[in-house]
């Protein structure tokens, strides 16, 4: 086709209105508040601060930490690790001789949590057939004095009916916990009940417990009338991991009464 200088046909599109910018004015500022002699936000008068101190009577042992060793707060050592091991072996030999004379295996019941180390060391040295179980009896809480009202908080799994039971304790002082445990085991049908305690503190005895059947009383050491920790025994759940038995300093458990 011959080009005659006429521009090619373009389809007509919708007409587009030209863009016109529209100036908008800012809203007028709000009217100023009327003049007044009062401040818009008057400050409240301050109340005088009362001066005083509040002392929380927390066990000092709870504050042990921040680089302190496990023996922080120990006044003196009563029995060393070697002395404990030797005495536990002697008690285990005496107990084993009695248990081997039984017709049926005895049930050794450890009292949690304080007796767990003594229980483990003892039964490993007893050359006689036996079963092992744990019971929990609480009477101290976080304090240093027995409440006098022990209670069983964890039951046995082993059936003790018609069997000889050996209660393994960390310490017998007032005798209330042992009396409670003996009554508990007798109710479950134990034929005889012995008590084997790591420490015996007769100076604190207030309850005269009675053993059952052919039961015997075994003890590791006689303990002076001091608050002792270590070898499983605690204050506020501390000191159980000490390999020896020591006397706790009085300031570690006496309440702060200062203002």
Automatic annotation (TrEMBL):
Keyword terms, alphabetized: Cytoplasm, Glycosyltransferase, Magnesium, Metal-binding, Nucleotide-binding, Purine salvage, Transferase
Coarse class of the protein's main subcellular location: cytoplasm
Pathway stated in the Swiss-Prot or TrEMBL entry: Purine metabolism; IMP biosynthesis via salvage pathway; IMP from hypoxanthine: step 1/1
Catalytic activity from the UniProt record: IMP + diphosphate = hypoxanthine + 5-phospho-alpha-D-ribose 1-diphosphate
Stretches for region Disordered: 1-49
EC numbers on record: 2.4.2.8
One cellular component term from this protein's GO annotations in UniProt: cytosol
GO molecular function: hypoxanthine phosphoribosyltransferase activity; magnesium ion binding; nucleotide binding
Source species, domain of life: Eukaryota
Cofactor(s) it depends on: Mg(2+)
InterPro entries named among the record's database cross-references: HGPRT, Hxn_phspho_trans, PRTase-like, PRTase_dom
Domain (Phosphoribosyltransferase) ranges: 89-235
Any single GO BP term: hypoxanthine metabolic process
Compartments where located: Cytoplasm
Broadest EC class assigned to this enzyme: transferase
NCBIfam families given in the database record: HGPRTase
Annotated family: Belongs to the purine/pyrimidine phosphoribosyltransferase family.
Name by which UniProt lists this protein: Hypoxanthine phosphoribosyltransferase
Biological classification of the source: Eukaryota, Viridiplantae, Streptophyta, Embryophyta, Tracheophyta
């Amino acid at each position: 086709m011959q080009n005659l200088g006429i521009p090619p046909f373009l389809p007509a599109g919708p007409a587009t209105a030209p863009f016109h910018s529209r100036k908008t004015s800012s809203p007028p500022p709000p009217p100023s508040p009327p003049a007044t002699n009062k401040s818009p936000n008057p400050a409240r008068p301050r109340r005088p601060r009362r001066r005083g101190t509040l002392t929380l009577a927390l066990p000092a042992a709870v504050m042990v930490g921040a680089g302190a060793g496990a023996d922080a707060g120990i006044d003196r050592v009563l029995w060393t690790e070697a002395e404990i091991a030797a005495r536990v072996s002697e008690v285990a030999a005496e107990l084993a001789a009695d248990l081997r004379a039984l017709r049926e295996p005895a049930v050794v019941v450890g009292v949690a949590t304080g007796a767990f180390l003594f229980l483990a060391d003892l039964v490993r040295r007893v050359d006689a057939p036996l079963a092992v179980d744990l019971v929990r009896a609480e009477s101290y809480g976080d304090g240093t004095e027995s409440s006098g009202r022990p209670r069983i908080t964890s039951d046995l799994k082993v059936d003790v009916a018609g069997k000889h039971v050996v209660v393994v304790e960390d310490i017998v002082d007032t005798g209330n916990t042992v009396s409670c445990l003996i009554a508990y085991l007798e109710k479950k049908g134990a034929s005889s009940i012995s008590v084997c305690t790591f420490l015996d503190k007769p100076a604190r005895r207030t309850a005269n417990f009675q053993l059952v059947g052919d039961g015997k009383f075994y003890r590791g050491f006689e303990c002076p009338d001091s608050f002792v920790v270590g070898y499983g025994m605690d204050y506020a759940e501390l000191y159980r991991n000490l390999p020896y038995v020591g006397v706790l300093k009085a300031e570690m458990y006496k309440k702060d009464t200062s203002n």
